[in-house]
Design brief:
By secondary structure, the chain is mainly β. It has helices at about 10-30, 35, 430-440; strands at about 120, 125-135, 140-150, 155-160, 165-170, 175-180, 190-200, 205-215, 225-230, 245-250, 255, 260-265, 280, 290-300, 310-315, 325-330, 335-345, 345-350, 355, 365-370, 375-380, 385-395, 405, 410, 410-415, 415-425.
Length: about 450
């Protein structure tokens, strides 16, 4: 007996109904499934609970795509032989911060550190050369050394103290010095050569050193064109070039203290009406196209305006209003400055507008150079300090010869002393004037 599976007619109807519903759901798909799932049976009383329909199990599943064939993994390549890594370079040693070596370069033009003025040296005599060896750099310098070599045989160069130093701090200096002796036959300009060597922590330098020295022999003045030389050492003023004695007006006196040995001393009466003292040379060729006159003068108090140091005049008459052709150097009014003047046929050709300061009660070496219609003059102290030059262009009456008048001209006297007078018939160069200055007793520092 199939008790469990027996169905009534109504059951058959229900089965029929359910089969039709499944076909309907299949037709419309799942869109209405939610809404239709609540439909119940057709009992009249409506109390029969709605039959819960199981989700359709007849919905065809989507076609399943077969998975792609599995590709075998690529064959594993055997690893190549392992190459040894490159050798590792050890890193440079690390410098502790703050201990790096600073750059202490001297550059392309290292400093000389030392400057020495050679100056003048009399032949056969000694002179001390000294200076400061100064460090201008912003760091210390080390192994500092200065060497000097004699310029030639017969010279002696020896240090007077230390000339080498382990260290010279920044902006510091050291004194150095040498004694230099010239041989008897030395003359003219020479140079003492040497080297300044020094180092820093990163650089070194060897700087050449050259010290010029003017060597002179007293009395060894230029001779070319020399027409007159009055040493004024004796009681009579004699031109030592020609041997002729000069004329003397008034009463100048010999034997005064001079630059070289003794000198002559002159006075003035304070007026231009009479001539007090003057020495007048013979006629000399010193008023041509070129000429040079030089003398030491030590003027005292000036009492006459425009007192003459010396005057070249072809008439040779020192009296007031007697000037003719030539030139002169004089004091400006009664001031201790030098002034130049030209003469042309008895008239003033031109006065200078520039003056050269000198002074009184001191020795000055006064040099005048005539070139055409112009005279130029210089004044040097005994130690070589130069004043000037001054210049006076204008019109100068030239002549074949003229007299040289000392300490007076055109009636104007100069009180004071005069020494070492020389006159040339040519214009001396500046180097020759320096040589003449040294030969005449100048002693520069």
């Amino acid at each position: 007996m199939h008790t469990t599976d027996m169905r009534t007619d109504s059951d058959g109807f229900d089965v029929y109904k359910n089969a039709n519903r499944r076909r309907f759901l299949k037709a419309i798909g799942a869109l209405s499934m939610t809404g239709l799932a609540g439909c119940g049976g057709d009992d009249d009383d409506g109390n029969t609970p709605t039959e819960t329909t199981e989700p359709a199990d007849t919905t065809e599943a989507p076609a399943t795509t077969a998975p792609p064939e599995t590709t075998a993994p690529p064959a594993t390549t055997a690893p190549s032989e392992t190459t040894a890594p490159p050798a590792t370079t050890e890193p440079p040693e690390t410098t502790e911060p703050g201990t790096e070596t600073p750059n202490q370069s001297f550059g392309d033009d290292p400093e000389a550190l030392l400057e020495i003025e050679g100056g003048y040296l009399e032949s056969g005599e000694s002179k001390t050369l000294s200076g400061e060896l100064a460090n201008p750099y912003l760091f210390p310098i080390q192994s500092v050394e200065v060497t000097l070599e004699p310029p030639s045989d017969g010279w002696e160069v020896s240090s007077t103290g230390d000339t080498s130093f382990d260290t010279i701090d920044t902006q510091q200096s050291e004194e150095v010095g040498w004694e230099v002796t010239a041989p008897e036959d030395a003359n003219g300009e020479i140079a003492i050569e040497g080297t300044v060597s020094y180092e820093s922590t990163t650089d070194s330098a060897d700087v050449p050193l050259s010290i010029p020295i003017q060597v002179f022999t007293p009395g060894n003045a230029p001779q070319d064109g020399l027409e007159a030389y009055f040493s004024l050492d004796g009681d009579t003023p004699v031109n030592e070039v020609t041997g002729n004695e000069a004329d003397v007006v008034g009463e100048p006196t010999s034997g005064a203290d001079g630059v070289v040995d003794s000198a002559w001393e002159f006075t003035a009466d304070g007026t231009t009406e009479t001539v007090a003292n003057v020495v007048i040379s013979e006629q000399l060729p010193i008023n041509g196209e070129e000429a040079t006159i030089a003398a030491w003068i030590n003027a005292s108090e000036l009492t006459e305006p425009y007192s003459r140091v010396y005057q070249v005049d072809d008439g040779g008459n020192p009296g007031l209003g007697e000037s003719t052709n030539g030139y002169n150097v004089e004091f400006f009014d009664t001031n201790a400055t030098l002034h130049g003047q030209l003469w042309d046929g008895g008239d003033t050709g031109r006065d200078s507008t520039a003056s050269v300061s000198v002074g009184t009660q001191s020795w000055y070496f006064v040099v005048t150079v005539a070139q055409g219609d112009e005279i130029t003059w210089y004044a040097y102290s005994q130690t070589g300090e130069q004043s000037g030059p001054g210049s006076a262009p204008g019109t100068r009456g030239q002549s074949d010869t003229a007299a040289l008048m000392l300490m007076c001209g055109d009636g104007r006297d100069t009180p004071g002393r005069m020494d070492e007078v020389r006159a040339y018939s040519r214009a001396l160069s500046e180097d020759e004037i320096l040589e003449l200055f040294l030969a005449s007793g100048g002693r520069p520092a």
